[in-house]
Write a structure and sequence with these properties.
The complex is a heterodimer of chains A (about 350) and B (about 260). Chain A is mainly α and about 350 residues long. Chain A has 15 helices and two strands. Chain A is about 75% helix and about 0% strand. The chains are: A mainly alpha (about 350), B alpha/beta (about 260). The complex binds adenosine-5'-diphosphate (ADP) and magnesium ion. Magnesium ion (MG) binds next to helix 2 of chain B.
Chain lengths: ~350, ~260
């Protein structure tokens, strides 16, 4: 291997690693706040990529109907609760707002010629269609069982993942999707070529990580989510509802997942069922961080990306095996060093 | 005793908390069986009773952490099986038995989170409440950048109380605030209850330390086996032979010393 190839592989590794890092952060975020392992996270990645691809190729997508159906069912459940628990103006306003949003999305996707609008707007529209699927997913499948055992949550999470893969096939078809790069420029640093999409991925990932850091360190809403992760009983006593925390984290995870999908869509061809393996690599990063430590998880995830890129060169058949074997020493190390943290007092 | 009770009740303010015939069960076991209890505005009411009497269960159900049957009237509104988020929003605060602090967050973050509900409702005046809490507990000001998990037992209790006060509660419920604290710190914390009442916060105080509780309270309930066994003016109960024997006698005095 010469220097140039190493740089190329390194670039690929860091690009993928940055995406895995984002996914690892979402997995930890959702897990610490809700105790749910978000298996369907990968579907947000593929849905994001394939929705963009569908827009650009001028195919119609049914994604908006998925959103509409979820919102309608969610609102029906909310109305049933309202009838049971009594009228509450704020909740009624929310229901109307959600239905109006779904209606607006249907109108937009039907009226616009999606392949002709600027790419920037395609990105925005993809986000607007898919990010609300996150909180609605929480509302429909997890909120009713929020206090269940972690194992039950995991099983439901797997079920939702399987359903999402199936729906993905229905919405996007079996063929893969790829999108145009954000920009065509190629940078040269001496003899080294830098792909512009690589820079996009790295810049957006870093921006997102900084944004998340500020949101969780500086805003009271971010602190409220952290508080829920630290002590849910204490958080409830402060009026931080677990429903709010769950929907907020799912919204963030969906946002990160969809954005990741949009970012890698120009580099990688994704299929309706590609999400699982991608999020699994994020999961390896999350495990390296012990499902608690954000910085360790991010570093671990970038490591996963690099190992993947270089093993592709040396032993491409064993790429996935090598990546997932990475998890074993960390699991052993974790199980040897971890001690159950007792409750305070 | 009854006449004294009525007299006391009429001199106190409006009914703030009025619990009627509350039942709470864990599975098939009923831990609170038909408790009725009132707190008037400006009062300190205490609930004493042995371990396992259902005191913690009663407070948890009143704020909506546990499912219950019966009525909880708070500030003139009736709640059946109340919801925590709503009760906190209406001005009910609970300092739980285990404190439930956010141990990996700073003291100041813990306090700010106490005002989460006010912040959400667009009430920006919590900064001044923060200053009040710091002046009430200067120790918390000194430690404001420290993680809550690094505090001593007494400081944790102060933080738990301060955090609850950040929500500007009309009624503050405290579950065994003196549990595990040295006598000196217990005294400091009890002194604060009197201060708080002067500032218009009503208090419902659950205590094992019956002597200290009866001294600071206006009215008292004795809870035994999930039922109210006795109630009356705190001063009257403190002189009641049965209470003295069970909760203030030599034996319990001894226990109090041991536990401190
Ligand atoms: N989580 C629980 N599950 C089952 N039983 C409980 C639980 N918590 C308390 N109990 C029972 O309910 C009764 C009342 O407990 P508690 O309210 O904690 O009493 P106190 O606070 O007066 O010591 C006790 O008999 C206790 O064993
Ligand atoms: Mg108790």
């Amino acid at each position: 291997m010469n220097f140039q190839i190493a740089v190329l592989l390194g670039q690929d590794g860091i690009t993928n690693g940055a995406i895995y890092a984002l996914l690892a952060l979402s997995i930890i975020l959702v897990f610490t706040v809700t105790r749910i392992l978000l298996i369907p996270l990968g579907e947000f990645v593929t849905y994001g990529a394939l929705t963009m691809a569908a827009f650009q190729s001028g195919r119609s997508t049914g994604v908006v109907w998925l959103l509409l159906i979820m919102i309608v069912i969610g609102c029906a459940l909310d109305i049933r609760n309202l009838l049971k628990n009594g009228y509450d103006l704020r909740k009624v306003q929310w229901i109307i707002l959600k239905l109006a949003y779904a209606g607006a999305m249907v109108a937009l996707t039907q009226l616009l010629t999606l392949s002709e609008i600027p790419m920037f707007l395609q990105v925005i529209l993809t986000m607007m269609l898919l990010v609300p699927v996150g909180p609605m997913m929480y509302r429909l499948f997890f909120q009713p069982i929020a206090s269940a055992q972690p194992l039950v949550l995991l099983i439901v999470s797997i079920a939702v993942h399987v359903a999402m893969v199936g729906i993905g096939l229905l919405l996007f078809g079996p063929e893969g999707g790829r999108t145009q790069p954000f920009s065509d420029t190629v940078f040269r640093l001496g003899s080294v070529m830098l792909k512009s999409q690589t820079l996009w991925v790295i810049i957006v990932s870093i921006a997102l990580i900084v944004f998340l850091f500020l949101a969780f360190e500086r805003t009271l809403y971010g602190k409220a989510l952290r508080a829920t992760a630290v002590n849910r009983m204490g958080a409830r006593l402060m009026g931080i509802s677990p429903d709010f925390a769950g929907k907020a984290t799912f919204a963030l995870a969906a946002f990160i997942g969809v954005l990741s999908g949009i970012l890698i869509a120009p580099i990688t061809t994704l299929y309706f069922d590609s999400g699982f393996v991608i999020s699994l690599k994020g999961f390896v990063g999350a495990i390296i961080g012990g499902l608690i430590s954000y910085p360790l998880a991010a570093i671990g995830a970038v490591g996963v990306g690099l190992v993947e890129a270089f093993s592709m060169f040396w032993a491409s058949d064993y790429k996935e095996v090598i990546v997932f074997t990475l998890i074993i020493p960390f699991l052993i190390w974790r199980s040897l060093t971890s001690h159950h943290v007792e409750d305070e007092e | 005793m009854m006449t004294a009770t009525t007299a006391e009740k009429t001199t106190a303010g409006e009914l703030l908390l009025d619990i009627q015939d509350l039942h709470v069960s864990y599975g098939k076991v009923e831990a609170v069986s038909g408790v009725s209890l009132q707190v008037r505005e400006g009062q300190i009411v205490t609930v004493i009773g042995p371990n396992g009497a259902g005191k913690t269960t009663l407070l948890s159900a009143a704020i909506g952490m546990l499912k219950s049957q019966g009525e909880v009237n708070f500030d003139g509104h009736l709640y059946i099986n109340p919801d925590v988020e709503i009760m906190v929003g209406k001005g009910l605060g609970l300092v739980p038995e285990k404190r439930e602090l956010f141990t990996t967050m700073t003291v100041e973050d813990n306090l700010l989170l106490g005002a989460f509900m006010r912040y959400r409702k667009g009430d920006g005046s919590y900064e001044s409440t923060l200053a009040e809490v710091y002046s009430l507990f200067p120790r918390l000001w000194e430690r404001r950048h420290q993680l809550a998990g690094t505090l001593s037992g007494g400081e944790r209790q102060m933080l738990a109380i301060g955090r609850a006060l950040m929500g500007k509660p009309r009624l503050l419920m405290l579950d065994e605030p003196s549990l595990g604290l040295a006598p000196l710190i217990t005294r400091e914390i009890f002194r604060i209850f009197a201060d708080l009442r002067r500032q218009g916060v009503s208090i419902l105080l659950v205590e094992q330390n019956a002597r200290a509780a009866l001294r600071v309270a206006d009215y008292a309930y004795v809870l035994e086996g999930g039922n109210v066994a006795m109630q009356g003016n705190a001063a009257d109960l403190a002189n009641d032979p049965k209470v003295i024997e069970a909760y203030l006698g030599l034996a319990s005095k001894h226990q109090e010393l041991l536990s401190s």
